[in-house]
Amino acid sequence: MRVLLVEDDELLGSAVVDGLTQAGYTVDWLRDGGQALRALSNDEPDLLVLDLGLPGRDGMQVLRDLRARSSGLPVLVLTARDTVEDRIAGLDAGADDYLVKPFDLGELTARLRAIARRRGGRATPVIEHDGLVFDPAARSVTLDGESIALSSRALAILEALLERPGIPLSRERLEQILYGWGEGVESNAVEVHIHHLRKKLGKERIRTIRGLGYMIPK
Ligand code: CA
Fold first, then answer.
1. At what angle do helices 171-178 and 152-163 cross, to 10 degrees?
2. What number does CATH give the domain 2-120?
3. Tens digit of pLDDT for each residue in 194-213?
4. Dist. CA 85–CA 206, nearest whole Å
5. pTM > 0.90
6. Distance 79 CA to ligand 1 centre (A)
7. What residue spans in the chain does CATH classification 3.40.50.2300 cover?
8. For the segment 97-143, what is each residue's pLDDT rounded down to a tens digit?
9. Is it the case that residue 183 has pLDDT exceeding 90?
10. Is the dihedral of CA 49, 110, 144, 192 positive or negative?
11. Rounded Cα distance, 21 and 39, in Å
12. Residues with CB under 5 A from ligand 1 (ion)
């Protein structure tokens, strides 16, 4: 899952990038609200983690602009503005969640998982599919009760497909989930991970849809 972090504090920002990367997210990091808005008009991530006190454009303006253009992007506000009025204003401006600094990285990742669940219309913390159980918190997979070892990138692809059963995801979309802006994309990486996933989970689990990409059937 791809997260855009907008945070101008260098220490905090790098700690969040490390924590989210360890939790299995692909993270891009911007320090300026204006840059974030420009980036978001080209390419939407799966989740936005947004500070409020930012150079360029204030985080509240970023949030209002996003919602004014009808973006449904899930947004978690991460801020030192801790009054009840601030929290109400943030949520009413379209934030999905609001976390006050200082915060615990474990709580941040748990809240992001909760947002992803709601977006997927799920109440259960694990995703089940025909004998396969994916646990986003533990980053673990079992098939018919047996634990299956997968690389973090293969897990990220599996998660993306399981989140949208019946909807094909293109190779380009899967590459975006695997790689941040600065990273070079290895050619064939997606095909290689799909091959491994099929080997471990069964050929029929992931279908190739000609011209559209890969899909896990509903
Ligand atoms: Ca700030």
1. 130
2. 3.40.50.2300
3. 999 999 999 999 999 999 99
4. 47
5. yes
6. 7
7. 2-120
8. 999 999 999 999 999 999 999 988 889 999 999 999 999 999 999 99
9. no
10. positive
11. 20
12. 8, 51, 53
